[in-house]
Amino acid sequence: MYQSSLLLIFPAAMAFAAAMDMLTMTIPNRISLGLLAAFLLIFPIAGLPLDVVASHLAAGGIMLVAGVVMFAFGWVGGGDAKLLAAGALWLGLPQLAPFLLVTAMFGSVLLLALVAYRGYPAAALPIPEWAVRLHRSETGMPYGLAIGAAALVLFPYSALFKALI
């Protein structure tokens, strides 16, 4: 019974990371590290076979390397790169390509929404400080929203989710 409650850790952490990115344009390291630690504690409870665990670790490692490369080119922020790796760790290799595709789809929608939002004069909008900051084009884009949304959509298809239900 308690195993079902473990299903909340990943979605809660991803939603928190997405909210933090939107509000502060940063994703704290403690979220990605916490997701890594939680995965390492949960997989034995879930009873995942070692080959499946290796698949999850490989997905996280691949995304960490890819994220570092994307960060080096300035395509994503450091927090985004680490969150991608943490998400891939929980989703596993079979969900890696869908994770990237769905993240790109949500990222495209986010970009269009942000461009439309920035088209309105900021003074005409009764908005809080974080929304004013987001309105500035030099602020960039809180890609953690797209990463978090994609992870939440795909988590039910992961081996870890299925093992815990």
How do the helices and strands line up, and which of them pair or pack?
Layout: H1 2-6, H2 9-24, H3 29-46, H4 50-72, H5 78-91, H6 96-118, H7 129-135, H8 144-154, H9 159-164
Write up what this structure looks like:
The protein has 165 residues and is mainly α. The chain has one domain. Helices cover 75% and strands 0% of the residues. The protein contains nine helices and no strands. α2 (9-24) runs antiparallel to α3 (29-46) and α4 (50-72) runs antiparallel to α5. The longest helix has 23 residues, at 50-72. 35% of the residues are buried. The mean pLDDT is 93.
Question: What descriptors fit this protein?
Answer:
165 residues; elongated
Q: Which regions have little confidence, pLDDT < 50, spanning 5+ residues?
A: none
Number of helices: 9
Q: Give the strand tally.
A: 0
Q: Encode the helix/strand succession as letters.
A: HHHHHHHHH
What is the SS-derived class? Answer: mainly alpha
Radius of gyration equals 17 Å
- pLDDT average, as an integer? 93
Distance between the first and last residues' Cα:
9 Å
Shape field: elongated
Give the helix proportion (percent range): over 70%
What profile does the largest beta sheet have? none
What is the number of domains?
1
Report the sheet-strand fraction. under 5%
